[in-house]
Amino acid sequence: MNFSEIQIIGEDETFKGSKSKYVWFFGGIFVFLCFLAMHYSTYISFLFPISEGIPYSLISYIVVLSIGPFIILITSFDIVSSEIETGSVRYIISKVHRSSFILGKFFFLFLVFISVSTGIALISLIYQYSEGNAFQLKNIVLFWIFSSLYLGCFISIFLFISTLSVNNKISFTMSAVFLGILIFFFLQGQDNYLKYLTPFFYGVKNMEFMKGFPVGAGYLTVFESLLSMFLYMLVFLSMSLLAIKRRDL
């Protein structure tokens, strides 16, 4: 692994890669959907206490939880498999280490969706200010961190699947099936330990912090949640690195 090689791959994907415009386009759609959810949240304002106002960060976070995995699937299922299918991966890995190739792809997608989370957070701040609500910067920061890590978990999952696949069709099918399995595991209920295998569990668990910044023992719960999502992302990213090293390309 070479940091300069990772930077080269990441910059090439971000500014020159054929996939870059496609990923940024869907990232923009994601931000727009969150904007619509916040804009039309006034129609459900009766669900929230009048004194507290509309929790725009919570509404945005619900959109991220529900739509985010599907946006990530669309933008990342072919991030590696397309290179394998066309054979261009052989040229790339002759110039850089395989691990740098994978990490560059990951950080490209992660950068895009960190930018998306930042955009959504800024829109939430603007809506809070325009409505005269209390300035909840801490909640916005938590939203940004939770959203980025939550989306990062799915990036690492679909990157791993794409690394295993020989073409885009197989990669998309495997990614869709795996996402369906994760949803099934999560819907089994609170008493089922399978929920711990899904990013959905950790994402939904953080919803309570969108309603109010934690105090006291709540800080430990936040740290545990952040650590869990980071480890989840690290596990799948490590499996991607192991898979690409063992593949006959």
From TrEMBL:
Query: Which cellular component, as a GO term, is one annotated location?
Result: plasma membrane
Task: Quote one Gene Ontology molecular function term.
Answer: ABC-type transporter activity
Q: Where is the signal peptide?
A: none
Say yes or no: keyword rRNA-binding present: no
**Keyword annotations from UniProtKB, A to Z:** Membrane, Transmembrane, Transmembrane helix
Which top-level group of life is the source organism from?
Answer: Archaea
- TM segments? 22-46, 58-80, 101-129, 141-161, 170-187, 217-244
Pfam families registered for this protein in UniProt: ABC2_membrane_2
Q: Supply the name of the protein.
A: ABC transporter permease
Q: Which organism is it from?
A: Methanosarcina spelaei
Q: What is the lineage of its organism?
A: Archaea, Methanobacteriati, Methanobacteriota, Stenosarchaea group, Methanomicrobia
